[in-house]
Prior knowledge:
The complex is a heterodimer. Chain A is mainly alpha-helical.
Amino acid sequence: MDLLDRFAAGDLEAFESLFRQYQGEVYRWIMRIVRNSATAEDLTVETFWRMYRARAQFDLSKGNCGPWLRRIASNSALDHLRRSRHEVPLPDDLPATAKQPPAEQLELRREILGAIDKLSPPLRAVILLALVEEESYQNIAQALGISENAVRVRLFRGVRVLRKSLSQAGVHA
Amino acid sequence: MNQHELDDIKTLLKDSLRPVGGHELQRDLWPAMLRRFDQPAFHVPWWDWTLLAAATALLLIFPGMIPALLYHL
């Protein structure tokens, strides 16, 4: 009986092996969406909790739980964004090389983060994944369980909302 | 939206937000996972039960409120 079979049968040791194998990957994916390390850690645990509870639904014929896990991770992250909308703190990730004076850059960054915060969670996730993290449309589509065309539509809508918000704030993209 | 507009907004975002995809996990989360197993699957705070009991009692005493409540839901 291989690892996935044992996991599907509820074997805790098999689950631990999968956890240790995938925790870093799941964390990095969630981090791309929520951009906060403590939240990403909590959501990584939540993702594996959901995975363990849904183990009976896993299709063993696929032979790899990575894509399934990434889908659960995306749902966990989106659920978090829905719960904490408008309460998300600024990420502590200023670029190392600032082109503008710090005060001006901080103000611009504040406007941009405010504009991102106004996006609905599905649009926000696509904008961050596609434009900041430069993930492929195919990866985003698989992780969110939508088509590549739907990713393009969300990107288009997200950019339109962002441009409008930034324009109202006096920032022209 | 054309590619030029997309590139403009991408540049603006990347000037303010650094990619975090390469950020590595700093600790093993297995102990936290085990703690999660020990938590009850679903926990309702006692005040929620109190509120539910009060609402039920109110509806039993004044059943005429049910249609009005349903209308406002």
